Amino acid sequence: MMRKLLNPARSIATLTGRLASRAVIATSIVLPFIAQPAQAQQGRVAVIRDAEIETLLKDYTSPILQAAGLSRRGIEVVLVNDESFNAFVAGRRIFVNTGAIMAAETPNEIIGVLAHETGHLAGGHQQRLREQMERARTMAIVGGLLGIGAMAAGSVAGSRSGTSAGSALVTAAPGVAMRGLLSYRRSEEMNADQAAAKYLRATQQSTKGMLKTFERFSSNLALAGVQVDPYQISHPLPRERIAMLETLAHESPYFDKADPPALMQRHQLARAKIAAFAGGQAAVARAVGRDRSSLAYRYGDAIATDLSGNSRSALAKMDELLKSAPNNGYFHEFRGEILLKLRRPEDAANAFARSMKLAKDPDGLIRSRYAFALLSTGKAENAKKSLDSFRAAIQSDPDNLNAYLHLSQAYALSGDVGNADLAMAEGHFRAGSMRDAQVFAARALQRLPKGTPGARRASDILAVAK
């Protein structure tokens, strides 16, 4: 189930500072005239965790990363709660907005975007961008100093023209530096487009989706009557980019290759889920069509029904849906979420257990929900049973911050207060909440036996947090 992780009211559910700091120098694919995403510039990115959509994006990205020689570098794909069409890279993460998935009518369109972002990663554009930014900053400073020197010389000589020339240098220096930086960014984007076409061809996938995406931008700009100075944008002008992409795209022997039907259905299910969370039944119909018999429409409708507060009706709809697709693990997952709302945690645990067997869950998100359902029964024996699942989920996904909170609760219900405090310390530490991490680490040290792994970890957290 889709869950936001960025919530200032919950320190345990806050993204690590690493995401924010790395996002500041993000290389973005769109919007065409913005150097970095606005959210990234503000240092905060609203991230959503969802096993179904994350797995789909990983399946889209894995062959592209392999073609780029990046498959062993632990590249993550992160889902951002933003309705605009955008994707960007920061550190070793590719961020994809929910709006990009919603706008992409086929898997190939979003795969083209991911291939472009992979081009930025493989080209080392982030590191070079840092260097270019430093160079631009230096140029601005040096240009300003030269201008000040010229003004001083003109003033001593009593020359008005010399003073004016110096003033012009001071004014022009930042603009010249910025133009150099933006020119570099435009060449980066061209290189990423070329790399993307190469990766798509290597993986025998169509370049049509990537071309369609940029044609859409070009059309939108034309309709808006946008007039821009080519020196003031970070991306190539659409007409330049489209011309190059058309050539690259049509050179591919796989240009007309269609997405597999099974992948297309998974894409539509993901879009239906996002639409349901974003705008209810009406948004689902707009996203996947009004064919009420389609799997995607019925899925989105069931989710929207649950979100509207009618969980019993939503459960009935999911049960009917599972008759059509009994082996869809994500349908069982959402059924488990509904059962939790209906205060049937044991039935929810069974649904999550079924989901784990059927769905890909490399990050243990579903496993953590299974453990939470066990914990929600309120039974001490189930709390103890949940401990292994929480620990396994955290081991595969250390940034699953809610899992630390629930692990702490499970330890507390099992009577192990020391490890409950340690779990809270670890969660706050990974969330970047160092003051709270110190408090809980200190408590854990008082309760855990000296020399044990838990006590050593608490000591480490306390030392680093300080």
TrEMBL record:
Any coiled-coil regions, as ranges: none
PANTHER family associated with the record: METALLOENDOPEPTIDASE OMA1, METALLOENDOPEPTIDASE OMA1, MITOCHONDRIAL
Source taxon at top rank: Bacteria
UniProt xrefs under Gene3D superfamilies: Metalloproteases ('zincins'), catalytic domain, Tetratricopeptide repeat domain
Cofactor(s) for this UniProt protein: Zn(2+)
GO terms for cellular component: membrane
Species whose genome carries this gene: Pseudohoeflea suaedae
Keyword Hydrolase attached: yes
InterPro entries from the UniProt entry: Mito/Outer_Membr_Metalloprot (IPR051156), Peptidase_M48 (IPR001915), TPR-like_helical_dom_sf (IPR011990)
Domain Peptidase M48, chain residue ranges per copy: 58-247
Protein name: M48 family peptidase
UniProt keyword annotations, A-Z: Hydrolase, Metal-binding, Metalloprotease, Protease, Zinc
Cleaved signal peptide residues: none
GO molecular function: metal ion binding; metalloendopeptidase activity
GO biological process: proteolysis involved in protein catabolic process
